[in-house]
Structures are given as C-alpha cells and as structure tokens.
From TrEMBL:
Signal peptide: none annotated. Belongs to the MoxR family. The keyword Acetylation does not apply. This is MoxR family ATPase. Gene3D superfamilies: Magnesium chelatase subunit I, C-Terminal domain, P-loop containing nucleotide triphosphate hydrolases. It holds the Pfam family AAA_lid_2.
Amino acid sequence: MSDNQPIILPDKSIELPKELKKILEIEKEIRKVLIGQDKLVNRLLIGLICNQHVLIEGVPGLAKTLSVSSLSQTLGLDFNRIQFTPDLLPADIIGTQIYNPKTGDFSPKKGPIFSNIILADEINRAPAKVQSALLESMQERQVTIGDETWKLNQPFMVMATQNPVEQEGTYQLPEAQVDRFMLKVNISYPDRAEELRILRLMAKSASVPEIETVASADDILKLRDFLDSVHMEPAIEEYIVDLIQAGREPEVYGIEAGHLIKYGASPRATIYLTMAAKAYALLKGRMYVVPGDVLDIAYDVLRHRIIPSYEAEAEGLSSENVIRMIIEKLPMP
C-alpha cells in the first residue's frame, strides 16, 4: 500500500435509502422457503443491484432454481428457466422469425431471453454458438432478430449454473466469456442443522409457505443510484488496485506466487470488485465500505479471473488457494 493512513468512516447518522429496507424484506421473504443458502441470496442481490450477472457452481439439488425463482417472486419480476442441452440452438434463446404463408411476411417470435431474470441451467451443456448468443445478450442488453433490435427488460440478470462433477458432454466456457459474469459463486451442501430444517419444511405433501411480493423492479433500479453514494476511502481503493495488480505481478509485492499464476485478472475485476464491495456494504445496512467487505466478496469476483498455471494444478492448488495466498501476504489498509 502506498498510503497507510487510517480509514476515516463517514458519519453513521447518514439515513439509509428506503429501498434498502425493501431489500432486507426480500431476504426475509426468501428465507421462508430457502434454508442454508444465505450467501447465494446475498450474491444474487449484489448482482441485481450492480446490474450484472452471476455464475453458480454446485452439484444438483442445492436449491439454485428455487433461490432465483423465489427472488423473482419477491420482486414481482418475470422469470424464465432455460435448460441448456447439446441440441439447443441460438434461436431457442433469443427467438427467431416466423414465416406467414398467407401474407408472405416474416414476423418475430421473441425467445425466453426477454425476461427480467434468466436461469441458464447447466450453461456448459450447450455448444459455443449457443453460449455466445446468451453472453452477447448479457453484454449488449439487446437482441437482434432479423432486421429489428429490441432492448431487454430492466432489471435484467442472468444466473447461470454449472455442475462441477460431470464433465462428459460439456463445453467449457472460455475465460473471456466467463469474465462477463461479475461473480462466480461456489455453493456446497448444507450442514446437519440446516438439512434437518429442510427436511421439516419440504418433506411433506402440503404446499410450502407462499412467497409474497414485497418490492418492485423500480426499487431495484432506484437502489442502483445509491451505489455511487456509498463511501469508499482512497486507502481501500488503493487496496483493491493492489489486490488485482498482485494477481498479475505478485513478485512486485513480495509474494512468491508468479509460477502459480497463468493469467491475472483484467481491469474489469477492479471495477466489479469495487461495485460489489459497495453493494455488499449496502446489504449490511451501511453507506460506507470497510476492508472486510472487500475481503468477503473478493473470492467470488476473482476465482474465475485468476487462472492457475499448470504447475499450480500439478501441486493441487486452485485459483482460491492462489487468491488466499495473495490476500494473506498483502497488507490491509
């Protein structure tokens, strides 16, 4: 760090936006049916607030679909689930033109991408052409069918899932495409107490508790305006830059990990880590960022951007191991 001055927190009496209280109601509502995935819900809300997308990796049955559908219900948003398969075509996602034999004209038929929240289930099951069609929609926020172009609905978020166990018959996402996801979240099995609660809630023929709509799309859109108002000290900004730079040139920071890193993170990671830390602070009920916010969200921003070398893989080290090494060696502000 070039500046080790103490962090000065802003006045804690600053009034929190009323939309933030709505977000806290959303979390409470989702917990009626979702147990043990608080981190996943938190990251989905960060993605929504930051107007970005989330990649989830976890084995089947961990409530990925339930979490995103519940989130859409609490906001009254449109939700579509797309099951990616090897025979899927780009037109199955974005739509196509339909020929009318009576008039001799073509009319557009919009695909499931025209929704607020999209669950791209097992995105690595579909071939590259289909993946790129989805990722183009994510980046450009628009879809072109024939001669016409439509803007996608707002808010718009894609939550894509990958199964880390099965690799046969899959098409791995290239690093450049994975980089378009703001966060990559790894989710695991619930602990014993959580699984017992799941059993008591779900293992019955009666319907599960209903989720109510407690906020709206406008609440999310208004909350995005508060991101720029969240205070971040220059020392924390420098820490974020150092964290990214250390992933590219660790030796400059006295970290002996250069042989373990094939590629470091791009400047997009710097932007996303800053935005995600501010959104994380908002969800914690603060209008200012503390260093712990950066550390809590850093793994989800960097795990798909810092690519370990073959030497690291030979030693059984993942990107998370490398990130942990950098975080432990880099002084915090």
